[in-house]
């Protein structure tokens, strides 16, 4: 069971505190200014680095105030979210719902009047875990041996169970792509990248359609995901043996959302290349 300590502006897992301190990571500014690690990705106002500290590996995600993102949020009638704090709470909520995710190690923020000026989260690596889309591309290309077919079915049902737990707990992911599920060496399925998770008493229909549309869209690029696989997933997600007329209407909404995501993804890729966020 994890035990969090409050150390100034940061909250940190007690067991990892000595390791972090030995590597010069004791204060909020230490994490924000840390120059080591290998670059993973960056977007406007956000960067991710992988740190190898002794025998353990971590991901350091840093958020900094960005005027463009600030005005974008205001133009949509929303106050800019507090990046690290929101993700930190989402990790805790997802774990409480019984969904495996990244182990939270440390979090800190500098906020004024609820506006996140700078913040970070540190999570431990999921050792030897592989993105689910990479697993599907590598291990489940037809023709499949009987053992591979059984494992593919197990993963499909595990994915449906995870999605049902998430939505049943009043949460929706908003980046529900196969690349955000990781398969561990013991067969455990993990859900990552929780900074945009929304939480309500009950998930609004449009967000459920969005999550399932994103999942369906990413399945188009993996190869080896058949119509049978999709139907097996959907029936398990609903907990049914056949589709009602209302379920079929939901399928049509998901397919329509899938097509809109595809069009949006092309435009987004162009914008991110222009900003230098993608090669």
Describe this structure as you would to a colleague.
- This protein folds into two domains: about 5-125, Phosphorylase Kinase, domain 1; about 130-275, Transferase(Phosphotransferase) domain 1 (Transferase(Phosphotransferase), domain 1), CATH 1.10.510.10.
- About 45% of the residues lie in helices and about 20% in strands.
- By secondary structure, the protein is of the alpha+beta class.
- It is globular, with a radius of gyration of 20 Å.
- The chain has nine helices and twelve strands.
- The strands form three sheets. The chain has a seven-stranded antiparallel sheet with strand order 1-2-6-7-5-4-3. A three-stranded antiparallel sheet has the order 8-10-11.
- The protein has helices spanning about 15-20, 30-35, 65-75, 85-95, 130-140, 145-170, 205-220, 225-240, 245-275; strands at about 5, 10-15, 40-45, 45-55, 55-65, 105-110, 115-125, 130, 170, 180-185, 190, 200.
């Amino acid at each position: 069971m994890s035990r969090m300590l409050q150390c100034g502006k940061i909250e940190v897992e007690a067991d990892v505190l000595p390791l972090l301190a030995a590597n010069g990571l004791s204060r909020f500014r230490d994490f924000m200014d840390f120059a080591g690690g290998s670059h993973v990705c960056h977007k406007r106002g956000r960067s991710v680095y992988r740190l190898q500290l002794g025998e353990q590996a971590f991901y350091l995600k840093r958020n900094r105030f960005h005027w463009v993102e600030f005005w974008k949020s205001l133009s949509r009638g929303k106050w800019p979210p507090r990046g690290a704090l929101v993700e930190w709470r989402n990790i805790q909520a997802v774990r409480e719902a019984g969904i495996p995710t990244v182990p939270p190690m440390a979090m800190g923020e500098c906020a004024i009047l609820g506006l996140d000026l700078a913040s970070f989260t540190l999570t431990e690596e999921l050792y030897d875990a592989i993105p689910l889309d990479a697993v599907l591309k590598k291990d489940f290309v037809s023709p499949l041996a009987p053992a591979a077919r059984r494992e593919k079915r197990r993963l499909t049902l595990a994915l449906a169970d995870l999605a049902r737990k998430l939505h049943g707990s009043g949460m929706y992911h908003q980046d529900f792509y196969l690349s955000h599920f990781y398969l561990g060496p013991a067969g455990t399925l993990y859900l990552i990248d929780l900074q945009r998770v929304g939480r309500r008493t009950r998930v609004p229909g449009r967000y459920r359609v969005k999550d399932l549309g994103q999942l369906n869209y990413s399945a188009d690029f993996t190869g080896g995901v058949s119509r049978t696989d999709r139907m097996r997933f959907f029936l398990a997600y609903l907990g049914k043996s056949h589709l009602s007329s209302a379920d079929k209407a939901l399928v049509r909404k998901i397919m329509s959302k899938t097509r809109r995501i595809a069009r949006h993804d092309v435009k987004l890729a162009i914008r991110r290349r222009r900003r230098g966020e993608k090669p």
